[in-house]
Amino acid sequence: MRRPRAIVFDFNGTLSHDEPILCEIFIELFGEHGKPLSAQEYFDVLAGLSDPEIVRTWLGRDHPDVDEVIEERIRRYRAAVADGSSVPPELREAVHYAAERVPLAIVSGAARPEIEPVVEAAGLTGCFQAIVPAEDVDEGKPAPDGYLRAHELLGEDLPAADFLVFEDTEAGVASAKAAGMRCFAVLGTLSPERLAQADEIVERIDLALMQRLFGEA
Fold first, then answer.
1. What is the pTM of this model?
2. Are 169 and 151 within 8 A, CB to CB?
């Protein structure tokens, strides 16, 4: 296995184990806006898209309150997970291990104000050289914009094929692959069948996985 020279993490559902929390927040918000959403519909249609794209997809592309809905979603999300509790200890250990060996970044469809408090509370701020949130790119996943931007920030001298991405949705996997990067899909959000485009499917991100990736197991 090729040793990665840079690693990029998706945030929601991958670094932060929060997809059920996101699902519940969107169910509440969309119900309040008169467009009920079921959990099945969230995972079938919306999971993995950027926040703006989720709102536009469900409430309509001409919905007048997209920004307001996103701001309220961020407020509710921060109230639920800003203590860092959505990042499990074994994942924190894996991130620290990887950060000692290669540059790391986060690429997410979430907004910076919801990513940074969780990363800080989990004690991971110093591990990441770059964060690329939804507001920093023109097109969210499955477009490759976020991963292309991470490539620029971590080092354009590194071949894209030397980057390893961790994702949990088919939109995220498609985004990473479109940027020319390897991608490992993490189980938990979607079925393995929907993640088949990934280079490998793993049950979890932990120290043992990182040691295998770096040939130090």
1. 0.93
2. no
